[in-house]
């Protein structure tokens, strides 16, 4: 399965999403590894099997085994962190901000790829998962490391497109099962 095969699964009302999905591979603000790692990490965060399979197939020839593992690790650790830090951000009692998280996050320090790429993938997953605190933290690290706003925006755009595809496919599956 590929991104083109995903486009074929999208209904007519999602024409804009189809067009945006087709444009992902032409993104110029990201390196090849950044682009395909963002695609894979965002797909994993989307939790839709068809999207994950298509993104993995699309990313496979463009990523090393280490980069694939790091993109998966970004999706995994952010799946945990986004829930925890969204709670910290949203809870009224600020006591929780002073308590240690007590969550293992060793992969962030040693992801097996360039730290900027891992941070970018973490930002994309955080966007899918809706954690403003994590988005802000990763964006600051990326900008401080010299990544431009266009690259950060490109990762967020890819995450948004992939999430929309997953939501549409999940919705259509639910409608067809009714």
From TrEMBL:
Function statement: Antioxidant protein with alkyl hydroperoxidase activity. Required for the reduction of the AhpC active site cysteine residues and for the regeneration of the AhpC enzyme activity.
| Domain of life of the native organism | Bacteria
GO molecular function terms listed in the Swiss-Prot or TrEMBL record: disulfide oxidoreductase activity; hydroperoxide reductase activity; peroxiredoxin activity
Q: Which InterPro entries match?
A: AhpD, AhpD-like, AhpD_core, CMD-like
According to UniProt, the name of this protein is: Alkyl hydroperoxide reductase AhpD
The set of disulfide-linked cysteines is 131-134
Regarding protein family, the annotation reads: Belongs to the AhpD family.
Supply one GO BP term.
response to oxidative stress
Keywords, sorted A to Z: Antioxidant, Disulfide bond, Oxidoreductase, Peroxidase, Redox-active center
Ranges for domain Carboxymuconolactone decarboxylase-like: 96-174
Q: SUPFAM superfamilies, alphabetically?
A: AhpD-like
User: Record's Gene3D superfamilies?
Assistant: AhpD-like
| One Pfam family of this chain | CMD
EC id: 1.11.1.28
Does the UniProt entry include the keyword Disulfide bond? yes
Q: Kindly identify the residues recorded as the active site.
A: 131, 134
Catalysed conversion reaction: N(6)-[(R)-dihydrolipoyl]-L-lysyl-[lipoyl-carrier protein] + a hydroperoxide = N(6)-[(R)-lipoyl]-L-lysyl-[lipoyl-carrier protein] + an alcohol + H2O
């Amino acid at each position: 399965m590929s991104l083109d095969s995903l486009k074929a699964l999208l209904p007519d009302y999602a024409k804009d999403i189809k067009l945006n999905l087709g444009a992902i591979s032409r993104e110029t603000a990201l390196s090849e590894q950044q682009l395909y790692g963002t695609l894979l990490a965002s797909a994993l965060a989307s939790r839709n099997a068809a999207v994950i399979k298509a993104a993995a197939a699309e990313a496979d020839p463009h990523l090393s085994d280490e980069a694939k593992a790091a993109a998966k690790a970004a999706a995994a650790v952010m799946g945990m962190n986004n829930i925890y830090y969204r709670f910290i951000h949203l809870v009224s009692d600020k006591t929780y901000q002073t308590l240690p998280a007590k969550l293992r996050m060793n992969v962030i320090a040693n992801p097996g790829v360039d730290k900027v790429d891992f941070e970018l993938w973490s930002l994309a997953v955080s966007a899918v998962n809706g954690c403003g605190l994590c988005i802000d933290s990763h964006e600051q690290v990326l900008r401080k490391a010299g990544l431009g706003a266009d690259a950060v925006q490109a990762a967020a755009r890819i995450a948004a497109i992939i999430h929309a595809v997953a939501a549409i496919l999940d919705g259509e599956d639910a409608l067809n099962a009714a």
